[in-house]
UniProtKB/TrEMBL annotation:
<dbReference type="InterPro" id="IPR002401">
    <property type="entry name" value="Cyt_P450_E_grp-I"/>
</dbReference>
<dbReference type="InterPro" id="IPR036396">
    <property type="entry name" value="Cyt_P450_sf"/>
</dbReference>
<comment type="similarity">
    <text>Belongs to the cytochrome P450 family.</text>
</comment>
<keyword id="KW-0408">Iron</keyword>
<keyword id="KW-0560">Oxidoreductase</keyword>
<dbReference type="InterPro" id="IPR001128">
    <property type="entry name" value="Cyt_P450"/>
</dbReference>
<keyword id="KW-0479">Metal-binding</keyword>
<dbReference type="InterPro" id="IPR050705">
    <property type="entry name" value="Cytochrome_P450_3A"/>
</dbReference>
<dbReference type="Pfam" id="PF00067">
    <property type="entry name" value="p450"/>
</dbReference>
<keyword id="KW-0349">Heme</keyword>
<protein>
    <submittedName>
        <fullName>Cytochrome P450</fullName>
    </submittedName>
</protein>
Length: 159
């Protein structure tokens, strides 16, 4: 909301559909979890890559969510891209891919979306605030990758 004020303005009157798209774009654009880690259990080959038992592997969640094959203008924050969007088990993986019934997709994805909706609703309907100067940089090695100074707000007024 702070980095893309034009998009944030539309949250006020865009209704639930816009909020949903804004949150999906937030999960795509920012490195929620930049990567997932696993250690290879037995030697195998996948699409020409030979993986040896014991190798530490990273699944690039952030990179996949910006892959130009699946996302046009991947570096642009564009909630509208989620209108008529077609999800596959592996094209949008902020909380890992596949499905949560039989594989390791995060079982809390719906809970996460609900929590984000409640939070954004509170921020846009119940309070106004200022955002003081601070460091928004984050480190891609961190899980989760959060801004260096957290996110500080002040001059909070209840509406
Ligand atoms: C911002 C919030 C969240 C993020 C970014 C997130 C991310 C992830 C990621 C990346 C994994 C896969 C880990 C791996 O395979 O290496 C995972 C798995 C999981 N998550 Fe979440 N998660 C979030 C919230 C939640 C919540 C709220 C719940 C429960 C209410 C939850 C429950 C689970 C469970 C049970 C798994 C294990 C699934 C499995 O291995 O079968 N997560 N999550």
């Amino acid at each position: 909301m702070h980095q893309f004020p034009e998009a944030a303005k539309q949250l006020q009157n865009g209704g639930n559909q816009y909020i949903e798209m804004f949150l999906q774009e937030t999960r795509r654009y920012y490195p929620f979890f930049p990567f997932a880690v696993a250690r290879v259990q037995k030697d195998f080959e996948y699409e020409g890559f030979k993986l040896k038992k014991g190798t530490l592997t990273l699944l690039d969640l952030y990179g996949t969510n910006r892959h130009p094959k699946d996302w046009s203008q991947p570096e642009t924050f564009l909630p509208e891209r989620f209108i008529n969007w077609k999800q596959t088990p592996f094209n949008f993986i902020p909380q890992v891919g596949s499905n949560y019934d039989f594989r390791h997709r995060c079982a809390g994805e719906f809970v996460t979306m609900s929590m984000m909706k409640a939070t954004i609703h509170y921020l846009i309907k119940y309070i106004s605030y200022d955002v003081p100067e601070q460091n928004f940089d984050f480190n891609f090695n961190d899980i989760p990758a959060v801004p260096s100074d957290g996110f500080t707000i002040n001059n909070i007024h209840y509406l």
